Amino acid sequence: MGVRGLEAAVELAPGKACESSTERGPGDGQPVVILLGWAGCQDKYLAKYSAIYSQKGCTVIRYTAPWRMIFFSETFGIRSLQTPARQLLELLFDYSVENRPVLFHVFSNGGVMLYRYIIEALRTHKPFKNLRVAGTIFDSAPGRRNLRGALRALATVLASTNVLLKYFLLLTFATTAVVLRIVLYPLTRFIHESHYDALLKAPSRWPELYLYSQADAIIQ
């Protein structure tokens, strides 16, 4: 369902829907899991992971950023993912679960690009500084610059698109990525640093688990 203008889904743990942030009880220890989907991920696939956490009594928020933001806005240096990043954290307050530990499960680079702005918001926005992050699971992420893998991912997203439009978008993305993210990156990084480099510099204040597969052709 759409909440706060996001195509996000929220699944409250059983018996937690009526709690307010001022009422403390046994449910306060149950974590909130925020799932950040890969580029082009359909909610029905992310819901399978959501069900695992729900069965353990967790409240789950799942969201996948629009592929246009991931492949084009970010490539052009437009920080369009900052807004959904803040809105996801605001959902914790909307559903009165801001006092519970938060676990992030981040899928592929599409999820990492959004996560980058989430941790920035946690550091710089006063309402979010008291949120308790229990940890982060990186699932096939983050990945270093891999144009071939990114093109594979975009081609998968555009599988049902008109052939001419598909190849136009692939060419536009490849050209822009090569120019701004490879050739001119020594200069453009001062304006818009890559998600990979940004995460390398980000101070980690909670445990992190990294899961990779050697068979993954997109993330290296």
UniProtKB/TrEMBL annotation:
Q: TM spans, by residue?
A: 164-184
Cell compartments where the protein resides: Nucleus outer membrane
Q: What's an example GO cellular component term for this entry? A: nuclear outer membrane
The domain of life for this entry's organism is Eukaryota
Q: How does it sit in the membrane?
A: Single-pass membrane protein
What's the short name of a Pfam family annotated to this entry? Answer: DUF829
Keywords per UniProt: Membrane, Nucleus, Transmembrane, Transmembrane helix
**Family the entry assigns:** Belongs to the TMEM53 family.
Q: What is this protein called?
A: Transmembrane protein 53
Residues annotated as signal peptide: none
* Species this chain originates from: Hypotaenidia okinawae
